[in-house]
Amino acid sequence: MKITEHIQNATSTLFSFEILPPLKGENMKALFSNIDPLMEFKPPFIDVTYHREEYVYKTHENGLLEKRTTRKRPGTVGICAAIQNHYKVDTVPHLICGGFTKEETENALIDLHFLGIDNVLALRGDCVKSEQRFIPEADGHHYASELIGQIVEMNNGSYLDKEQVYNSGTDFCIGVAGYPEKHFEAPNLKSDLRWLKKKIEMGADYIVTQMFFDNRKYFDFVNLCRSEGINVPIIPGLKPFTTKTQLNVLPSLFHIEIPYDLADAVENCRDNKAAAQIGVEWAIQQSKELIAFGVPCLHYYSMGKSETVRKVAEQLF
Ligand code: FAD
């Protein structure tokens, strides 16, 4: 079922979460043991992130430079299918532009359709670590809006190499990323919103936000979106703190601010256990305020650890 249908049918705020594929070599048991504790809160859908390849360079004795690719967390599509089979819950695989030609994207979408997956989160992806800026494949997409264009064309029956229009039945619901504190490459929030609007005009159905710790940023973002004519559901993404080091790691990875009061409280914690407790309390307060605001769904970033998300959900769902 589509995420937009889940939202339309909901009688109260929905609970959902995002997981990462396990590191290569780990098994599905570990993944399921992270999902199991969250199932009693009846998530209508679970997101699974996509992790693109990294380049590894090795200089041989003869001086030749070998360039290899490696992926630390493969398996997004398989995990989505496994979750849908095991838990009978919809999944949202993240699909990125980086590393994909248009044909590879088309094939990935065909796989998802055959596996009974109705939703995708369409993203550009970040640049690989060894590159300064995002470089698409020669025949790939530069921006998420172009990827959305391809998904919509396929929903309408058009494939890359055929003039004929098919009736193969794909009808993906398309989610996109939104940034209450602006995307880090955007010169300002207004121009970022212009491109967000383009993603909706191209056919995206809903927005999921980057994590934020100050609800005012989300409220302002929603108001700005509405005033720019962006009227699709905007699902807030929340991340309960789990460690003290996240005080520095989260801002540097996700280009977000931690409010002074929260940062101060976490800094003064003697250990990670105490920091996680502060994180849970903060996320509960944020969630309560967002529910009162009328958000359609609260979406939690578990980042491979469900314990704190469970503690938050226990108080709300
Ligand atoms: P876009 O919407 O394409 O925007 C990228 C930048 O280009 C923005 O600064 C935008 O303002 C600008 N822009 C857009 N269109 C144009 C245009 N036509 N002309 C000029 N400028 C333009 N990454 C992963 O690799 N895997 C994941 O699973 C993943 N999941 C995510 C989930 C969520 C909810 C979020 C918020 C992010 C996720 N990311 C993931 C990170 C995301 O891929 C990066 O933030 C990436 O840098 C931007 O992706 P985007 O889809 O927002 O890009």
TrEMBL record:
Its EC number is 1.5.1.54. Keywords: Amino-acid biosynthesis, FAD, Flavoprotein, Methionine biosynthesis, NAD, Oxidoreductase. It comes from the Bacteria. GO terms for cellular component: cytosol. InterPro entries: FAD-linked_oxidoreductase-like (IPR029041), Mehydrof_redctse-like (IPR003171), MTHF_reductase_bac (IPR004620). Belongs to the methylenetetrahydrofolate reductase family. This is Methylenetetrahydrofolate reductase. It comes from Pontibacter arcticus. The lineage of its organism: Bacteria, Pseudomonadati, Bacteroidota, Cytophagia, Cytophagales.
